[in-house]
From TrEMBL, chain A:
Residues 3-238 form the ABC transporter domain. Keywords: ATP-binding, Nucleotide-binding, Transport. SMART domains: AAA. GO terms for molecular function: ATP binding; ATP hydrolysis activity. It comes from Agromyces terreus. It holds the Pfam family ABC_tran. PROSITE patterns: ABC_TRANSPORTER_1 (PS00211), ABC_TRANSPORTER_2 (PS50893). This is Iron complex transport system ATP-binding protein.
Automatic annotation (TrEMBL), chain B:
Keywords: Cell membrane, Membrane, Transmembrane, Transmembrane helix, Transport. The chain crosses the membrane at residues 48-70, 82-102, 108-130, 142-167, 187-206, 235-260, 272-291, 303-322. Belongs to the binding-protein-dependent transport system permease family. FecCD subfamily. One of its GO terms (cellular component) is plasma membrane. It is found in: Cell membrane. It is a multi-pass membrane protein. This is Iron complex transport system permease protein. It comes from the Bacteria. It holds the Pfam family FecCD. GO terms for molecular function: transmembrane transporter activity. GO terms for biological process: siderophore-iron import into cell.
């Protein structure tokens, strides 16, 4: 189900954090939410996940207005994976992922075989089955990240929100995490990920929403949205959009205004190279290279 | 094990009583069989030791449960009704109504006192944390320091009220409230602590899943469908209510709520569905034996039971403090 935001607004301490956001995030697709620090990415995810309430506007998942749903009902369809969530390190991976079943069980429900099967599937989906019985504080950052994601998957949502899924991950683990999200979207889940790395957004997202100072400044397909002009406008850095030699997706090369010999001013945009120009060393232009 | 502890604890004391005598007395009072004990021996079992041991069990269970719940809700491994000032607040409420002679309001006044102390501690801790720039996240040690400040003030008020009103041996009574004592408990103490334990304890036990979700932080719990602000208020209000009723019959017995949940957690892990009931059980057994020690070690003089629990709890608190400091 697609997520529709209309005129969503959120104020905190007299400051407008989210300013009349309108956006449609397509169903069964991976949407990248990008924008500089403080743009309101995490806050917007919190508004969708009912961690905070919007002051105005409407959030609809398919045809259901989210704010009219009871908290538990909402948690059955919307899951949030936040890497910064602190958890008791003595909890086992399995127990931590089983917390995702909370909204389905309520206060008195007892986890049955179906719940355990869902937890096992979630552990398998993120490749965490092998360390399911270990305590969380024995895990590496990448393993913890996977556990967080598994907990959200165990919630069986139709909308999965992920805040900075590649934060603190090494290069290989970053791609594992992104591949996983893209795979979930292909399986029909609506996935929204707040990302910092524009090339990740370009390589993996089906849809990009750019947030700056609480407003949507651009939205659409990565190739249409991620232009040198936009990157300069939003991040204030000099950028050039190339074609990724391995994937054919846009590749954003950036430098700060002071670095390198800028021929013209910092804003000098170089048009994206045509895919044909680099076709010679682009083996598979259609699909991102999948790892593992 | 709790039942066995209760029976054995009742047999221990200056007058030798056999376990069989305990059973006989219980049976007679529950209407099975005829009384076989002398009136005096039966009185020792049924009127003196039995209510005291049962009160100890209820108070121990309740305090341990409150500690486990508070540790989860405040995400502070040092949280406990005694350290955060609830017990001293409850003492003030209880002592005031006793002095005014309106005993019916006892549990209510103790609850009001506990709640006032809790609010004072959290408000103080929050503004102290805000000043140190740590944001709204409560620092565990700051919270405990706030609890110490609040405890001191409420403890002093308790002492003053007793000193003003009492005619005779006010020092002993002050000590009993500040350190906690189960001397002089009767069946009405059993009723107050027992009813509170069941009425508040059962909803707390049913909150295990919510408490597990609190382990993910505010945002994490909210994303799992927990109404964070409301649950936190209800759960902390419940612990204040239960602490109030327990302190009204026992004074502020310290460290039971701190030590037992941590000890049980070492065995069961942090999941609250096992932790809560087992903490309550362990707390009951622990306090039955601590009180038995308190009334027999220096026989015929009696030690406030809080001295025993502090002797055990102090070192554990120190160890937890070191561990919190390392991970903070």
């Amino acid at each position: 189900m697609s997520l529709d935001l209309s005129r969503v607004r959120f104020d905190r301490a007299g400051r407008t954090i989210i300013d009349d956001v309108d956006a449609t995030l397509p169903a069964g697709a991976l949407t990248a939410l990008i924008g500089p620090n403080g743009a309101g990415k995490s806050t917007l995810l919190h508004l969708i996940a009912a961690v905070e309430r919007a002051d105005a506007g409407e959030l609809r998942l398919g045809d259901r207005p989210l704010d009219a749903m009871r908290r538990r009902e909402r948690a059955k369809v919307v899951a949030l994976a936040e890497p910064q969530a602190e958890v008791d390190g003595r909890l086992t991976v399995e127990a931590s992922v089983a917390l995702g079943r909370t909204p389905h069980l309520g206060a008195f429900g007892v986890a049955g075989p179906r719940d355990r099967a869902i937890v096992d599937d979630a552990l398998a989906a993120v490749g965490a089955a092998s360390f399911a019985r270990r305590p969380l504080d024995s895990l590496s950052g990448g393993e913890r990240q996977r556990v967080t994601l598994a907990r959200a998957i165990a919630q069986e949502p139709t909308l999965l929100l992920v805040d900075e899924p590649t934060n603190h991950l090494d290069l290989g683990s970053q791609f594992v995490a992104l591949d996983l999200l893209a795979g979930l979207a292909r399986d029909g889940l609506t996935v929204v990920a707040a990302l910092h790395d524009l090339s990740h957004a370009a390589a993996y997202a089906d849809h990009v929403v750019v947030l700056a100072a609480g407003r949507v400044v651009a939205a659409g397909a990565p190739a249409d949205v991620l232009t040198a002009e936009l990157v300069h406008e939003v991040y204030g850095v000099r950028a050039e959009v190339l074609v990724h030699p391995l994937t054919g997706r846009p590749l954003i090369a950036v430098a700060s205004p002071g670095v390198g010999a800028a021929p013209a001013g910092p804003a000098a945009p170089v048009p994206a190279a045509a895919p044909a120009a680099s076709a010679a060393w682009t083996p598979a232009p259609a699909d991102p290279v999948r790892r593992g | 094990m709790l039942a066995a502890s209760v029976i054995v604890a009742v047999t221990i004391g200056p007058a030798p009583i056999a376990p069989a005598d305990v059973f006989a007395s219980i049976a007679a009072h529950l209407g099975f069989g005829d009384p076989t004990l002398t009136t005096i021996r039966d009185g020792i079992v049924w009127e003196l030791r039995m209510p005291r041991v049962l009160t100890a069990a209820a108070v121990g269970a309740g305090l341990a449960l409150c500690g486990a719940v508070m540790q989860a809700v405040t995400r502070n491994s040092l949280a406990d009704p005694y350290l955060l000032g609830l017990s001293s607040g409850a003492s003030v409420g209880a002592v005031v109504v006793i002095v005014l002679g309106i005993g019916l309001l006892l549990p209510l006044a103790a609850f009001a006192g506990a709640l006032a102390a809790l609010v004072a501690t959290l408000a103080l801790a929050m503004s102290a944390s805000a000043r140190s720039g740590r944001g709204s996240r409560l620092d565990p040690t700051t919270t405990v320091l706030a609890g110490v400040a609040v405890s001191s003030v409420f403890g002093a008020i308790t002492s003053l009220v007793i000193f003003w009103s009492a005619t005779g041996d006010s020092y002993r009574e002050i000590l009993n409230w500040l350190l906690g004592s189960l001397a002089g408990t009767d069946w009405s103490s059993v009723a107050i602590s027992g009813v509170a334990l069941v009425a508040v304890g059962v909803p707390l036990l049913a909150s295990a899943r919510t408490l597990d979700a609190f382990g993910l932080g505010e945002a994490g719990a909210a994303a799992l469908g927990v109404h964070v602000a409301r649950s936190r208020m209800l759960l902390l209000g419940g612990t204040a209510l239960l602490t109030g009723a327990l302190v009204a019959v026992s004074g502020s017995i310290g460290f039971v709520g701190l030590v037992l949940p941590h000890a049980v957690r070492l065995v069961t892990g942090p999941g609250h569905r096992a932790l809560l009931p087992l903490s309550a059980l362990a707390g009951a057994i622990f306090l039955v034996w601590a009180d038995t020690a308190a009334r027999t070690l220096f026989d015929p003089r009696e030690l406030p039971v809080g001295v025993i629990t502090a002797l055990v709890g102090g070192p554990v608190f120190a160890w937890l403090l070191l561990r919190t400091r390392r991970t903070a």
